[in-house]
């Protein structure tokens, strides 16, 4: 069974488990409680202009899956986030994504290096990392290390999606 994560309309965040308590999500005033002048984590995530972005969160980095609030799953065997654009079925979407990942001719865009100290969690960036939550969160089992981040957007006749893949750096 594939675990899909959705947001209320903003980007998704992938935060290392060790830094979950440092992700404060959306605050009522739109600012971090500490100094009252810095944008909250949700606003920082919304400011990511590209398909992905990296933000400091505590002593770590969060990977932000930006652009749109697409339903997203993590394909652990490929270390890839699959973001649903459109498809007739989940099976069609997964098959198209698998074909794209296996195709050596796929043209990927590079988006830098994500450094993580181990496993992470994907969730709606508006939520705080440690709050009780109603939405679905997905585990992202990763070893500590440096991960090259690359993306590809695919628009086929009846299927469209974005893949964000992590490769050892």
SSE map:
Elements: E1 12-16, H1 41-46, E2 52-57, E3 60-65, E4 72-75, E5 80-86, H2 90-102, E6 109-116, E7 120-124, E8 138-140, E9 145-155, E10 160-168
Antiparallel strand pairs: 1-3, 1-7, 2-3, 4-5, 5-10, 6-9, 7-8, 9-10
Please explain how this structure is put together.
The protein is mainly beta and 169 residues long. It has 2 helices and 10 strands, in the order E-H-E-E-E-E-H-E-E-E-E-E. It has helices spanning 41-46, 90-102, and strands at residues 12-16, 52-57, 60-65, 72-75, 80-86, 109-116, 120-124, 138-140, 145-155, 160-168. It has a 5-stranded antiparallel beta sheet with strand order 2-3-1-7-8. Strand 2 and strand 3 (60-65) form a beta hairpin. The longest helix is centred in the middle third of the chain and has 13 residues, at 90-102. The protein is globular, with a radius of gyration of 16 Å. The two termini are 30 Å apart.
Shape: globular
Helix content: 10-25%
* Order of H and E elements: EHEEEEHEEEEE
Q: How many helix segments?
A: 2
C-alpha termini separation: 30 Å
Major sheet, described briefly?
A: 5 strands, antiparallel
Residue fraction in strands:
35-45%
| Class inferred from helices and paired strands | mainly beta
For the largest sheet, list the strands in their spatial order.
2-3-1-7-8
Number of β-strand runs: 10
Mean pLDDT: 91
Low-pLDDT stretches: none
Rounded to the nearest angstrom, the radius of gyration is 16 Å
């Amino acid at each position: 069974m594939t675990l899909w994560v959705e947001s209320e309309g903003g980007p998704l965040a992938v935060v290392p488990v060790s830094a979950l308590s440092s992700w404060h999500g959306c605050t009522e005033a739109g600012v971090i409680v500490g100094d009252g002048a810095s944008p909250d984590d949700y606003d920082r995530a919304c400011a990511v202009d590209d398909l992905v972005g990296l933000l400091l969160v505590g002593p770590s980095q969060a990977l932000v899956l930006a652009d749109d609030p697409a339903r997203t799953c993590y394909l652990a065997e490929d270390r890839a986030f699959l973001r649903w654009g459109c498809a007739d079925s989940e099976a069609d979407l997964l098959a198209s994504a698998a074909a794209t990942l296996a195709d050596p001719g796929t043209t990927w865009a590079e988006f830098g290096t994500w450094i993580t100290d181990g496993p992470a969690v994907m969730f709606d960036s508006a939520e705080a990392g440690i709050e009780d939550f109603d939405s679905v969160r997905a585990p992202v089992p990763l070893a500590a290390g440096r991960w090259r981040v690359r993306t590809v957007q695919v628009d086929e006749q009846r299927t469209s999606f974005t893949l964000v893949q992590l490769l050892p750096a």
